[in-house]
Design brief:
Elements lengths: L12 E10 L3 H12 L4 E4 L8 H5 L18 H11 L3 E3 L6 E3 L1 H15 L2 E3 L3 E8 L2 E9 L2 E12 L5 H6 L3 E3 L12 E4 L3 H10 L28 H9 L10 E4 L2 E2 L5 E7 L9 H25 L7 E5 L9 E3 L7 H5 L7 E6 L2 E3 L2 E3 L6 E5 L11 E3 L8 H7 L2 H21 L8 H10 L6
Parallel strand pairs: 1-2, 1-8, 2-5, 8-20
Antiparallel strand pairs: 3-4, 6-7, 7-8, 9-15, 10-13, 10-14, 11-13, 12-13, 16-19, 17-18
Helix pairs in contact: 1-4, 1-11, 7-8, 11-12
Length: 452
């Protein structure tokens, strides 16, 4: 590749803070709020115009779709997200299990309010492009925005970018799933003009379960999932392929519906799943956005033709960006494994719990029996870089553990843990890798987190 040489230049410092969180999805948002609640100066940097990540920017409203009557679930800021959104009238029941969908637009306001109430300094429309290092310790980041190139200095940095962007630039050890093994990316969309009652009558007459996923994707389960209802729409797209509306070889159109409002709006439609895209490659991201929109229009046409109640449906909006499930993960002080998440692992350095829920790489396990595992602090701590923690789907672990911890509610667990640990390490006067985990656990318990 042809290269140029950049001219050396001085970069103005926009701000200095105690804890800097980069990325404001469920993990980053929880991290910033948790750190600020511990009484340290906290700044939250986001590249788009709203906080909330996958919820508000992608449009995935099902933050806890895995939840059933007997699920032993997380406690902490993630539950606050649900409660606050419900209090604003921004939830609807998810058709599967015992959870609510969060209206993506209402959640933008909820996130704003929670950030402001916690005393977090917000910075939107700012893209992190580089890091500031002193030896092997991170000292801040460089951002680009409409204001130009600026630096933000911090005593602790939390990478909640989803792709470990900050950790990689800082020199942390990491792994990246090979392109051919990466989970698919999705363009989520919403429609209006749906006859809700007519469509729900069709769903009652043609019930689907998790077992129907197996017709389009090979999926391993524990067996109990095969009888569980799922809002899956495989048959409609099978008919579209049989009639030639969708190419017969195209398996990327299929998936689930979620929220159907009495106003005729269907939001959070997850009907496009595209393989072969590396979301750390800008050209792949470009192709995925454009191809995803094309496939959405095919999906809508198939729904109009074959789904009762959708005859007058029309596109309302796309998510702001493509949804990504899988890219880079740090190699941490501890790397959580499939054995851990499938065998109720317990850890001395636990920062929270998560139910036995796995969704990805051909495995679907739903937490209907009360089983859960503890989430260890070690998966937030990268190798080779001091005073940097990670939160969200780029925490350390293998493929199947990633299929559990990539979940939005799991991201709130690692986020809250990272935020509290960063704050406690500052108070203790030690590097974040050397923090007294018992003190972190006590602080998390005071914040309402379930540890064991």
């Amino acid at each position: 590749m042809k290269q140029i040489v950049e001219t050396a230049r001085k970069v103005p410092v926009l701000a200095e803070t105690d804890v800097l969180v980069v990325g404001s999805g469920p993990g980053g948002l929880a991290a910033a709020i948790a750190a600020a609640r511990e009484g340290v100066d906290t700044m939250l940097v986001e590249r788009f115009g709203c906080f909330g990540g996958t919820i508000t920017q992608v449009g995935v409203e099902s933050i806890a779709w895995y939840r059933y009557r007997d699920t032993v679930d997380v406690e902490g800021i993630g539950i606050e997200f649900e409660q606050r959104t419900k209090a604003m009238g921004g939830t609807t029941p998810f058709p599967q299990g015992n959870s609510d969908l969060l209206d993506a637009e209402v959640f933008k306001v909820v996130a704003d309010e929670m950030v402001q109430e916690a005393g977090v300094e917000p910075l939107l429309h700012a893209l992190a492009v580089d890091v500031v290092m002193e030896g092997n310790a991170i000292r801040g980041i460089v951002i680009e925005s409409k204001s130009g190139r600026q630096a933000i200095l911090a005593r602790r940095v939390i990478d909640a970018t989803g792709d470990a962007d900050i950790a990689v630039r800082a020199g942390a050890s990491y792994r990246k799933t090979p392109r051919e093994e990466m989970m698919g990316v999705t363009v989520v969309f919403s429609c209006s003009g749906v006859d809700r009652e007519q469509f729900l009558a069709y769903v009652r007459e043609h019930p689907t379960t998790i077992a129907d996923w197996h017709k389009d994707w090979s999926a391993q389960s524990s067996g109990k999932e095969k009888e569980i209802f799922s809002p899956y729409l495989g048959e409609i797209f099978d008919r579209a392929r049989a009639d030639g509306l969708i190419p017969r070889e195209m398996t990327s159109i299929s998936g689930t519906w979620s929220s159907l409002k009495e106003t005729g709006e269907a939001t959070g439609l997850n009907l496009v799943y595209m393989l072969g895209y590396d979301a750390t490659d800008v050209r792949d991201l470009t192709r995925a956005e454009m191809e995803g929109r094309r496939l959405v229009m095919l999906a809508i046409e198939a729904m109009r033709r074959y789904a009762p109640g959708w005859e007058k449906a029309r596109l309302r909006n796309f998510g702001m960006r493509v949804g990504v499930r899988d890219t880079r993960k740090i190699i941490g002080r501890y790397n959580i494994t499939e054995r851990d998440v499938r065998n109720q692992a317990r850890f001395d350095d636990a920062i929270g719990i998560f139910p036995e829920f796995i969704d990805g790489y051909g495995v679907v396990i739903l937490p209907t029996t009360g089983r859960y595992f503890q989430v260890p602090y070690g998966i937030l701590v990268p190798q080779r870089v001091e005073n940097l923690l990670v939160a969200g789907r780029c925490v350390a672990g293998d493929k199947i553990s990633h299929a559990a911890l990539r979940s939005m509610m799991a991201c709130t667990v690692t986020g809250q843990g990272a935020g509290v640990a960063a704050a406690v390490s500052l108070k203790q006067g030690v590097a974040s890798s050397q923090v007294d985990v018992a003190r972190v656990q006590r602080a998390l318990c005071r914040q309402g987190v379930r540890i064991d």
